[in-house]
Structure formats: structure tokens, C-alpha cells
Amino acid sequence: MVNTSFTRDVQFxxxxxxxxxxxKSTLHLFLQVVGKVRLSLHPKMNHWWHVPFYxxxxxxxxxxxxxxxxxxxxxxxxxxxxxxxxxxxxEGDSKTVPLKGxxxxxxxxxxxxxxxxxxxxxxxxxxxxxIPGVTEPFVSDYExxxxxxxxVNRFWRILVQVDSxxxxxxxxxxxxxxxxxxxxxxxxxxxxLFSGRSAPVREGANPVEREASSHEMISFGFxxxxxxxxxxxxxxxxxxxxxxxxxxxxxxxxxxxxxxxGEALLMYEYVRNAADSPQKAILDFLESVYQAGxxxxxxxxxxxxxxxxxxxFEG
Length: 315
Fold this sequence. Notes:
With 315 residues, the protein is an alpha+beta fold. The protein is 33% helix and 21% strand.
């Protein structure tokens, strides 16, 4: 007999924010250092699709980045003991940077010295991007140095499961949609579906936000919590936000609309203990927000979705 509770604890482990918040802050800054390298060197794509990471069999990867007459990849290994960042080129050369025991300043120095040794020059703006309360440049940030491998590994194991479910749901949509990717901006795994119509420019939006929200969309994601939401959660929002969308019913019943955040939320702790399965709870949430948003904004639902008979998921 399969021990279901054991399987869930492995695939969807507990991730209380207060237990690893210092580590999460350090990791977030490590991710931004590497993410800015990809931003600097990868050819630009619409909606900033050239900047995120992807969930891999070891952790998070930049995927291949073109550079002169070769490509290179930067991958965080959160699976094996002694977590590392590996930088590898198509020429067969590589460098490895440890994650534990380094401050942000130490990590930044080792990443760029490793890139230089591999013949890669990347110019970045070496400061945190939009992390509340954190403004110290990478090169002088010795404060953030906590790194608990156990909790980082838990976070990655959750990402592995959520990435798979998000890809299933993304596969049901036949219109324009983003890959499932990990944005180092807010450290969230996300994907977005589009109606195909352009959207009005958000009042007061900066250039990053204007590019990201240039078209009508319904966006979905998962993140580990922050200063405002003090626990891991799934989220979804519709842009432009239609009037009275928060009157729409969500599924499962534990999901809710947050008027303060302007989005739908479903807490991770409920999902990991869901009676049917965590995967079904996630899919129900995604589907309920999609149906609410598509209905309220007059998307051509029939033309943009696979027939029910073609939707498959085993979880």
C-alpha cells in the first residue's frame, strides 16, 4: 500500500515562511544576480520572456544564452547536497560556485570572476530590483548570507510539482500563452494566457510594467510568500481587471478574491492537504479563475480551449 501522506510530504512539503525567511531573502538576491546576466545577454523577447528561469531536474536554469560564437547556461542545483551554481559553455568549459556560506557580495564576486574566466563579459546594474527594504548594491551586501539547504530543496521540490500542473493547464489553451517560467523579480513561478487583443496602457506604469501588460491577459502563479502574504500561495489575476470580477465564484471553496491585492488567492497549505489531490486543487483553482476572467472580458472561450475530451491529467 502506498503511504499517501509520505508521498505528499515529499512532493508538497511544508514551507512555513518564518522558518526560512532569511534564507529566502538571500536566495532571492542570488537569483537576481544571475537573472540580470540573462537579462543583459539574451536577445530581447516580448513580455520579458527572455529574462526568467525554468524549473530543471536539479533546480532552476537560465536555459541556453547566446554569446558571441557559443552559448552558455547557468543552473542552480538545489537537488544534490552542497548546493551550487554551475556555469557551462557549449565549448565544454565550466565553473561552479557554491551557494552555502557566501554572502550576496561573495556570490556576486565569484559569479563574475567565473564568467570572466570563461571569456564571458556581462554588464548588469548591480543592485536589487524591486525588493522592498533591500537597496544595498550586490558588491557590498554582506548582510544576506543565510542559506538553509533543506528549505531551498523543499521549495524546489514544490516547484517541480507545480511546474508540471501548470504545464498541463497551459496545454489546454490553444491561443497565445507564455511558457511556464520562474521570474526572479518576485521569485514566483508563473504563466500567462492572452486573448489576442491589446490592452490600454496602465496609468502610472513604468516601462517594465507597460511591456509586461501590453495585451489582455489572465496570469497565474505560485510564490513562497512575502511581507504582505505571510505564507506560500497560488495567485491569479485578470488584466485589465473587469468590473465586478470579484463577485465570481472560485474553486475550491477555500480560494478567495483579495480586494487589497486585486487578485485571486489559494493558500498552499490547503493545497498540500487537499482531500482529492493537490494537483486537482490547483487545476480547479486555475480553471475557475480562467472561466471567470474569460467570461467577464468576452474571450472566445470555445476557440481558445481544447475540447474536454482532449484534456488529460493523471494526478
